């Protein structure tokens, strides 16, 4: 049976859309966003995916995570896929879904952790950056790596062209990595 998945996002949601439109053998039960202005919400409406807004600003850290956990239980979620979700989940939350939370990060970890992986790599001046898919553990961008791919930064690249190159790799790599995760779960 298809694995029940929740996708968590904070912003544009292009990876969310890409996953919904992929051939992955999953049942996307719900999109959860922490930001009521996230464009991902419009995508969920267009794609007919149920969505829930858990506004971080209306919650304490504790009640924010409790609300998300309630939604995950309600939808019998087995796998949590972070797609541009910009909030740090607590060790307590993560322990409830150990090895069941996957994250996409726009750099070659362990370099350029954090919220601005693309910009930080570009401004540092590295010639190679990339994309990483990893399990989420209690550290920040430290969990076991599932898949990784390099992206060359050329002299002619701007931050914008680099962002495009990274996203292109993300769309392919996240699907490949999720396929590996699903196979391992069988
Ligand atoms: C993606 O580039 C993803 O790697 C990044 O946010 C973007 C979301 O784009 N995630 C992180 O930086 C996590 N620290 P999207 O909303 O269009 O999918």
UniProtKB/TrEMBL annotation:
UniProt: N(1)-(5-phospho-beta-D-ribosyl)glycinamide binding residues: 13-15
Recorded catalytic activity of this chain's protein: N(1)-(5-phospho-beta-D-ribosyl)glycinamide + (6R)-10-formyltetrahydrofolate = N(2)-formyl-N(1)-(5-phospho-beta-D-ribosyl)glycinamide + (6S)-5,6,7,8-tetrahydrofolate + H(+)
EC category name: transferase
InterPro entries: Formyl_transf_N (IPR002376), Formyl_transf_N_sf (IPR036477), GART (IPR004607)
Residue ranges annotated for the Formyl transferase N-terminal domain, each copy included: 4-178
Annotated site (Raises pKa of active site His): 141
Claim: Transport is one of the keywords in the record: no
Keyword Transferase tagged: yes
Record-annotated active site: 105 (proton donor)
Function: Catalyzes the transfer of a formyl group from 10-formyltetrahydrofolate to 5-phospho-ribosyl-glycinamide (GAR), producing 5-phospho-ribosyl-N-formylglycinamide (FGAR) and tetrahydrofolate.
Positions that bind (6R)-10-formyltetrahydrofolate: 61, 86-89, 103
Functional pathway: Purine metabolism; IMP biosynthesis via de novo pathway; N(2)-formyl-N(1)-(5-phospho-D-ribosyl)glycinamide from N(1)-(5-phospho-D-ribosyl)glycinamide (10-formyl THF route): step 1/1
EC code(s) of this entry: 2.1.2.2
Annotated gene: purN
GO cellular component: cytosol
Top-rank taxon, per record: Bacteria
Listed NCBIfam families: PurN
HAMAP family cross-referenced by the UniProt entry: PurN
Alphabetic keyword roster: Purine biosynthesis, Transferase
Protein name: Phosphoribosylglycinamide formyltransferase
Family statement: Belongs to the GART family.
GO annotation, biological process: 'de novo' IMP biosynthetic process
One function term, GO molecular function aspect: phosphoribosylglycinamide formyltransferase activity
């Amino acid at each position: 049976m298809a694995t029940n998945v929740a996708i968590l996002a904070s912003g544009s949601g292009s990876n969310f859309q890409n996953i919904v439109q992929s051939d992955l053998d999953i049942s996307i039960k719900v999109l959860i966003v922490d930001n009521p202005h996230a464009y991902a919400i419009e995508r969920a409406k267009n794609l007919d995916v149920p969505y829930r807004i858990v506004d971080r600003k209306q919650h304490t850290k504790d009640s924010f995570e409790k609300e998300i956990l309630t939604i995950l239980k309600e939808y019998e979620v087995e796998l949590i896929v972070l797609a541009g979700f910009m909030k740090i989940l607590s060790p307590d939350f993560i322990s409830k879904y150990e090895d069941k939370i996957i994250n996409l990060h726009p750099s070659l970890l362990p370099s350029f952790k954090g919220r601005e992986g693309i910009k930080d790599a570009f401004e540092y001046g590295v010639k190679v950056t990339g994309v990483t898919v990893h399990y989420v553990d209690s550290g920040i961008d430290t969990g076991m790596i599932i898949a990784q791919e390099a992206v060359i930064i050329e002299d002619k690249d701007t931050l914008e062209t680099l962002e495009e190159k990274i996203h292109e790799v993300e769309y392919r790599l996240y699907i490949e990595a999720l396929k590996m995760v699903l196979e391992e779960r069988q």
